[in-house]
Design goal:
The chain is α+β, with helices and mostly antiparallel strands. It is built from 3 helices and 12 strands, in the order H-E-E-E-E-E-H-E-H-E-E-E-E-E-E. The mean pLDDT is about 95.
């Protein structure tokens, strides 16, 4: 099977959208990611998957800390910005939480320290131990079949 076919099939799995952030030598760095999963309750662990070609990889390996911001339906612009789909000349005004930059008004901000790195094909998996969490009410933005979507009232 070719790469495009595999990617299209995987796009049939709806995911939330996150922005992964870290800080190195006073510089904030972020990237959009939907490869995110909760791993364990004891200890509280989560996993992010970063392409070996991503600029973010070196920053995460150096910082050994990262934050994950769960984006709301109002934050498609942030998703596009940190995915490199939208160029913005102004620097992004991050909020600070747990001594790291995070996305303002996200549904949740989760601060982690890297507990393990695992090579997996063309990606590096970072397992993060959760240090702190902040949560807000709102609706998530999701990604399905290559497009941004909203959940329709499920109550």
């Amino acid at each position: 099977m070719d790469d495009r076919f595999f990617r299209n099939v995987m796009g049939n799995f709806a995911t939330g959208i996150t922005v992964i952030t870290t800080e190195v030598e006073g510089g904030a760095h972020g990237m959009t990611a939907n490869a995110f999963v909760s791993v364990s309750l004891k200890p509280k662990l989560l996993l992010i998957s970063i392409d070996k070609r991503a600029k973010m990889l070196g920053f995460l390996q150096e910082a050994k800390r990262f934050a994950v911001s769960f984006l709301s339906v109002e934050q498609q612009e942030e998703s596009m910005r940190f995915a490199g789909q939208k160029k913005d000349e102004e620097s992004y005004r991050f909020e600070r939480f747990g001594e790291l930059p995070v996305i303002q008004n996200a549904l949740a901000n989760v601060v982690c320290t890297v507990s393990n790195e695992v090579e997996a094909g063309d990606h590096i998996l970072f397992i993060g131990e959760v240090q702190d969490i902040k949560v807000r009410d709102g609706e998530p933005i999701i990604y399905f079949k290559g497009k941004y979507r909203e959940l329709k009232n499920l109550d």
